[in-house]
Design a protein that fits this description.
The chain is an alpha/beta fold. 62% of the residues lie in helices and 8% in strands. The protein has a domain of 158 residues. It contains 15 helices and 8 strands. The strands form 2 sheets. The protein has a 5-stranded mixed beta sheet. A 3-stranded antiparallel beta sheet has the order 5-3-7. α13 packs antiparallel against α14. It is flat. The relative contact order is 0.10.
């Protein structure tokens, strides 16, 4: 578990501009390093190599890399727009965080600045013969890096922005959050207990979504105040001033809570305009269900994509829970639970609503819920409840009697045996 500052830094490192800035600085430093390292080379070494061609090579790189960078950036923007239109806008952040795309754009921009700085230094005669030789070697390495990056980028463009690729990226993000949730559903705190009477309600004046909880800071604050803290807003929950984010119970009822302590507790909640995949397993499932709902819309009418999404959700949820409970690292903190039913509702309710009129989707949904129930999920009753609800929706939407009978037969076969 990271502090808010480390989590914020990790978020910045995922941004496109951060990677591009590092590559640009590296390109500039590489171009200038030839000036500083030139005195350490033997004087007659540059004469044995044809380093005079470095001017023309740098000119070619400078003129071509700016165009390649512009084209690649346009392609990335087009891919994110296509993903937003064909899948869901919630998945575009994952495309912008794609490491291959970031490295490609950053390499092209960094090589452009490398060649530009090199040409400026050459024209101002900052390089001697040995400096020119070092710049020539650096340019050859830069050309090799550009070629390798271009080949990887061309191969990567084949799937960028496609619905299948978008589903895979959302699956990876959701899988990480779900695995962390299965290992430690309470985020290192104790299992939820309702606060006793007299607990102090802690409100937050920011409207948004909880993106990250700094559990270490909350635990330290509870120890410093000799209190218990009952967190009611876990990552993914909406935060507003009308409801408390936590309840604080002081051991000494006569003790007053300082404004600094309230500010410290509020600072442990990272609030943003949009939800984050990191600590929020529901968000990945919601994003997948949105992709399926978009595919089932009358304008697209692609039940195959919805079935692919159901298979993806089944892979994510059909995993046996961890047998050993996670160790409690913050014994003075209680976190509101996230039940299996909430996860199942986030994953299946939109699909059961939008796919009720298509028998193939309705049947696949019943099979997915049965597979998840058989995999050992704790709340199997929730699977049966959602399956019954989906059956009722589909029976009301399907006009063909044989479709309804077929769906009922599948439901009876899969859920006839109670656990």
């Amino acid at each position: 578990m990271f502090s808010n500052q480390i989590w914020f830094l990790k978020q910045m490192m995922r941004r496109l501009w951060f990677t591009a800035t590092l590559y640009c600085l590296f390109g500039i430093a590489t171009a200038l390093a030839a000036i500083w390292l030139a005195p350490y080379l033997p004087e007659d070494l540059p004469r044995t190599f044809g380093a005079k061609s470095v001017d023309s090579i740098l000119t070619i790189i400078a003129s071509s890399m700016l165009a390649v960078t512009t084209f690649s950036l346009t392609t990335l923007v087009s891919a994110t727009s296509a993903a937003a239109n064909s899948a869901t806008p919630r998945a575009t952040s994952l495309l912008l965080e794609d490491r291959t795309a970031q490295r490609a754009l950053s390499t092209f921009l960094g090589s452009f600045l490398f060649s530009l700085i090199g040409l400026i230094a050459l024209n101002t005669e900052l390089y001697g013969e040995r400096g020119r030789f070092l710049l020539f070697l650096s340019t050859l390495l830069m050309v090799a890096l550009i070629v390798v990056t271009l080949l990887r980028w061309i191969d990567h463009l084949a799937g960028l922005g496609r619905v299948g690729e978008t589903i895979s990226r959302v699956e990876d993000a959701a899988s990480g959050a779900l695995s962390a949730h299965r290992r430690d559903p309470s985020l290192g705190a104790r299992a939820w207990q309702a606060p006793p009477a007299g607990a102090i309600d802690i409100l937050h004046d920011t409207v948004g979504y909880v993106q990250y909880l700094d559990m270490a800071s909350i635990g330290r604050l509870a120890e410093r105040l000799d209190a218990t803290i009952h967190v009611t807003r876990r990552p993914g929950s909406q935060c507003d001033p009308s409801e408390p984010i936590a309840h604080l119970v002081l051991k000494d009822h006569g003790q007053t809570l300082s404004p600094e302590s309230v500010a410290s507790l509020r600072a442990a909640f990272s609030i943003g305009d949009r939800r984050s995949f990191d600590q929020d397993p529901r968000f990945g499932l919601i994003t997948l269900s949105e992709i399926a709902s978009k595919a089932l819309s009358p304008g697209i009418n692609d039940p195959g994509t919805a079935i692919d999404v159901l298979a993806t959700i089944t892979r994510l949820l059909a995993q046996a829970p961890h047998s050993e409970p996670a160790p409690v690292r913050h014994d003075r903190v209680y976190v509101a639970p996230l039940s299996d039913e909430e996860l199942l509702d986030a994953a299946f309710m939109p699909i059961s609503r939008d796919g009720a009129g298509q028998v193939e989707v309705a049947i696949r949904l019943q099979k997915s819920l049965a597979a998840i129930a058989a995999a050992g999920i704790d709340d199997r009753a929730a699977c049966r409840r959602i399956a019954r609800s989906a059956l009722g929706r589909a029976k009301a939407a399907l006009s063909f009697a044989e479709d309804r009978e077929r769906l009922e037969a599948v439901h009876s076969r899969l859920f006839s045996q109670a656990d």
